[in-house]
Amino acid sequence: MQNKIIVAGIGPGNEDFITPAALKKIRAAKFLVGGRRALKDFSSAKQIICAITGDLDASLNFIREKILLGEVVVMVSGDPGYYSLLDLLRKNFPPTQIEVIPSISAMQLAFAKISLPWHDATLASFHGRQPAREVLRFSTGKILGLLTDAEFNSASISKLLVDECGWQKNSVVTICAKLSYPDEKISTVTLDEAANSEPIKHCILIVREAE
Ligand SMILES: C[S@@+](CC[C@H](N)C(=O)[O-])C[C@H]1O[C@@H](n2cnc3c(N)ncnc32)[C@H](O)[C@@H]1O
Fold first, then answer.
1. What does the pLDDT read at residue 51?
2. What separation in Å is there between the alpha carbon of 178 and the centre of ligand 1?
3. Fold exhibited by the domain 107-208
4. Measured in angstroms, how far is the CA atom of residue 83 from the centroid of ligand 1?
5. I need a surface site. Which of 2, 85, 119, 168 has the fewest CB within 10 A?
6. Which residues lie below 8 Å from residue 68, measured CB to CB, with a gap of 6+?
7. CATH number of 5-104
8. pLDDT of residue 1
9. Start-end ranges of CATH 3.40.1010.10 in the chain?
């Protein structure tokens, strides 16, 4: 029987938001892969670990080698089904060998923080990619939920929405940074204010019309 690769979502960061199912698998893992911060928070000395860095081939090679010996647990932030290493794992291993433990996405937590349902929101990612402008284009009642990165951050995205996608300068953006961490910061400003303020890099933006 093939050993499984368990892709465990760890939620937005704080242990309070990880599911008991994921935590049980992570604690029991002999072979554990994850970002440096996740390894610091969740690994123990008895585990054989591999830090995910820019060199993704190194992580894949670790998994290829260790999967012959036993189950490998891969920790990913938020929910594995929403912009994570899961895509790359599916390209390199048979999907039947992969088991996913879902978790709370940073996107879900951002909407929860402002008590706004997300079922009608248009979700898109600027994390290492760019959504089609059509997806972002303003229409009455539209709500955008956006992942960001260092280049496409709170300032550059706010400018782009006004300049290229028909949003008004006084539309509202909630910037959610470091969600679930002790230094979590959530602020609501206009797109114009966000475009002209210090950029906040890795965060969630929730954009909607001015009330
Ligand atoms: C590669 S995506 C991972 C998304 C993840 N799978 C999820 O479901 O939350 C990374 C982006 O998610 C967002 N993100 C992840 N954790 C966050 C947090 N704790 N606070 C705010 N944004 C976060 C940022 O936009 C970051 O650049």
1. 98
2. 9
3. 3.30.950
4. 9
5. 119
6. 3
7. 3.40.1010.10
8. 74
9. 5-104
Closest atom, ligand 1, to C-alpha of 80: 6
As a whole number of angstroms, the distance between CA 165 and CA 138 comes to 6
Structure tokens at 135: 């997806």
Residue range 139-189, pLDDT digits in tens = 999 999 999 999 999 999 999 999 999 999 999 999 999 999 999 999 999
Output the CA angle 125-18-44, nearest 5 degrees: 115
Any idea what DSSP says for residue 12? T
Quick check: CB of 24 below 6 Å from ligand 1? no
Query: What are 59-73's pLDDT values in tens digits?
Result: 999 999 999 999 999
The Å distance, Cα 107 to ligand 1 centre, comes to 7
Q: Enumerate the CATH 3.30.950.10 domain ranges in the chain, comma separated.
A: 107-208
Provide the token pair at 104.
């709370």
Per the confidence metrics, is the pTM higher than 0.90? yes
Q: Is the sign of the CA dihedral 72, 75, 78, 81 positive or negative?
A: negative
109-112 long-range Cβ contacts below 8 angstroms, 24+ apart: 109/11, 109/12, 109/17, 109/176, 109/179, 109/180, 110/145, 110/174, 110/176, 110/179, 110/204, 110/206, 111/145, 111/206
pLDDT (average), residues 129-134: 95
Dig out the tokens for 146 from the structure.
């956006």
Give me 47's structure tokens.
């585990």
